[in-house]
Specification:
Structural class: alpha+beta
Number of domains: 1
Mean pLDDT: 74
Helix content: 10-25%
Radius of gyration: 16 Å
Number of helices: 5
């Protein structure tokens, strides 16, 4: 039990383990025609090259990323999540959040932004996706990212995609993602 907990903590908080290159991550997402359209048309986006996730009953995830507005980097962001429920294992994934317009971008960078447990993401590399919201639940699957025909629908002005990098995790857990933002050039 102690080894599992220690592994989760190391996975979630080790900057050197979670470090990756933004341009490489963007290139991986752009391999999907579905996601490439968002890079071409969104007002801005937040990219997380690697988010580490782990849990054993209680779990969490952590990742560091960059925020872009109209193609230019404007700052850095972190994502943290605590989950409670049935979960076991660890996983690493990349995530991109697209902002449809200036208002949505401004909302994200205004301080501490949080996705509720109802927020959804489309899994790109597995070609499987599921979403749940107050309007209902849907799911779909495809054999490759380019064959995934689900339209990436903006929810509250944001569209989120994930790309699983590795690991195995079983979960039926609840928890929202919380984000922070620091403008380029700002020192604490």
């Amino acid at each position: 039990m102690k080894k599992i907990f220690l592994t989760i903590v190391i996975l979630m908080f080790s900057h050197s383990i979670l470090a990756d290159d933004n341009s490489k991550t963007v290139a991986n997402f752009k391999k999907s025609a579905q996601v490439k359209k968002f890079f071409d048309n969104a007002y801005g986006y937040a990219i997380f090259p690697t988010i580490g996730k782990g849990g054993f009953g209680i779990g969490g995830s952590y990742g560091e990323g960059s925020v872009f507005k109209q193609g230019k980097k404007t700052g850095t962001t972190t994502m943290a999540q605590v989950t409670i429920g049935f979960q076991l294992g660890g996983q690493a994934f990349s995530e991109v959040i697209f902002f449809k317009n200036k208002a949505t971008y401004d909302k994200f960078i205004s301080g501490n932004f949080e996705f509720s447990a109802q927020a959804s993401a489309v899994a790109i590399n597995a070609g499987a996706n599921a979403k749940t919201s107050t309007t209902g639940t849907s799911a779909g699957a495809a054999t490759s990212p380019d064959k995934n025909k689900q339209e990436g629908i903006y929810q509250n002005g944001m569209a989120t995609f994930t790309y699983i990098k590795g690991g195995l995790m079983y979960e039926a857990a609840l928890g929202g993602q919380k984000f922070s933002f620091e403008k380029l050039g700002k020192k604490n």
